[in-house]
């Protein structure tokens, strides 16, 4: 019986997940979650703008649905996320707060979410996307006000309020190419550890392409490159996860392009299976119908494992084959 997560379990790893937006009108999504996934990442519901739209005014209606969904269906949740520059309300980013006040705002936010979802979050993305592509720190209200200490401070608060069993992650994109950014992620792991603070893993988002597109000149790297990138942080004693996998192309797709994409998904899965501390993989959505890509990169997309009619694409078989590569 084909199932992504059952094969992943056979490979001795923890999970296969999907980004999830709960849509009550799409029954196929629910069936696919049941059959193929044992984990999900709430696509937007736990972000700052969704949970604390104004200061100390918390709105949990949407996020609570995801917590309940996980409990009901016995799924892991990769909780996403505490500290990010994006989908951050203007009251935080333009508030003009001094260092001390901003740290207090950060603690209050982390404390409130971590406590509320203590028994459902398997992993938390504690800090998301702190790096520029050249490996330096991205300018944001966090970095510009607090400096690089904002990272260990965020992880210290997370550790204080989450369950001991919840794994704490740093998460970023373009870490898959062994660029300066990969080295930046390794530097972050060391920085957090140098403060004596717990970090359990690094998330490699893996928003990749199967061919050159205007948004990205470099297609998905070869398997060795991917493995080396994963080891750049896992060798430091943390777990690694592909957290947001999709492999986009210039649309429309053709059978030939779908084959190239399937091969890319296979390499990604193989690289995870080849690295001992790669504990799981999450794809960033189920059907091409709802992917974030066409809205952000026009004329690109078709990046997921199911097409817009919920038919399994060659990418599904490629991904499964990669998982079963050992
Ligand atoms: O819900 C509103 C709707 O009411 C409104 O009419 C509509 C008009 O624009 O917007 C809707 O909100 C959108 C939301 O997705 C829900 O669909 C936002 O505009 C849109 O910006 C938001 O996009 C999300 C994006 O993060 C924002 O940065 C995507 O769904 C989500 O897939 C994407 O996920 C990110 C990860 O969190 C971090 N890594 C990169 C990844 C892809 O960008």
Automatic annotation (TrEMBL):
Its main location: secreted. InterPro entries: GH, GH10, GH10_dom. It catalyses: Endohydrolysis of (1->4)-beta-D-xylosidic linkages in xylans. Residues 2-322 form the GH10 domain. One of its GO terms (biological process) is xylan catabolic process. It is found in: Secreted. Pathway: Glycan degradation; xylan degradation. The keyword Hydrolase applies. GO terms for molecular function: endo-1,4-beta-xylanase activity. Its EC number is 3.2.1.8. One of its GO terms (cellular component) is extracellular region. Keywords: Carbohydrate metabolism, Glycosidase, Hydrolase, Polysaccharide degradation, Secreted, Signal, Xylan degradation. Belongs to the glycosyl hydrolase 10 (cellulase F) family. This is Beta-xylanase. It comes from Clathrospora elynae. The lineage of its organism: Eukaryota, Fungi, Dikarya, Ascomycota, Pezizomycotina.
């Amino acid at each position: 019986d084909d199932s992504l997560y059952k094969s992943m379990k056979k490979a001795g790893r923890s999970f296969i997940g999907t980004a999830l937006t709960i849509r009550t009108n799409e029954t196929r999504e629910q069936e696919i979650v049941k059959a193929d996934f044992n984990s999900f990442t709430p696509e937007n519901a736990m972000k700052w703008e969704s949970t604390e739209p104004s200061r100390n005014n918390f709105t949990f209606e949407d996020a609570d649905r995801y917590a309940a969904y996980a409990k009901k269906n016995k799924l892991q949740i990769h909780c996403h996320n505490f500290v990010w520059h994006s989908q951050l309300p203007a009251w935080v980013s333009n508030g003009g707060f001094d260092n001390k006040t901003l740290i207090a705002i950060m603690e209050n936010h982390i404390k409130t979410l971590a406590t509320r979802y203590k028994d459902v979050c398997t992993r938390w993305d504690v800090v998301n996307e702190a790096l520029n592509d050249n490996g330096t720190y991205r300018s944001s209200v966090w970095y510009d006000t607090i400096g690089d200490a904002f990272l260990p401070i965020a992880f210290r608060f997370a550790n204080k309020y989450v369950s001991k069993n919840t794994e704490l992650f740093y998460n970023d994109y373009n870490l898959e190419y062994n660029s300066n950014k990969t080295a930046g992620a390794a530097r972050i792991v060391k920085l957090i550890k140098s403060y004596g603070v717990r970090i359990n893993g690094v998330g490699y988002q893996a928003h990749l392409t199967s061919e050159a597109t205007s948004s990205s000149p470099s297609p998905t790297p070869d398997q060795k490159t991917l493995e080396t990138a994963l080891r750049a942080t896992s060798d430091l004693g943390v777990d690694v996860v592909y957290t947001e996998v999709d492999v986009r192309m210039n649309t429309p797709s053709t059978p030939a392009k779908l084959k190239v994409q399937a091969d890319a998904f296979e390499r990604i899965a193989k690289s995870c299976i080849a690295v001992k501390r790669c504990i799981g993989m999450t794809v960033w959505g189920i059907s091409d119908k709802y992917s974030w890509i066409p809205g952000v990169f026009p004329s690109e997309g078709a990046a997921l494992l199911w097409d817009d009619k919920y038919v399994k694409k060659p990418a599904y078989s490629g991904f499964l084959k990669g998982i079963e590569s050992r």
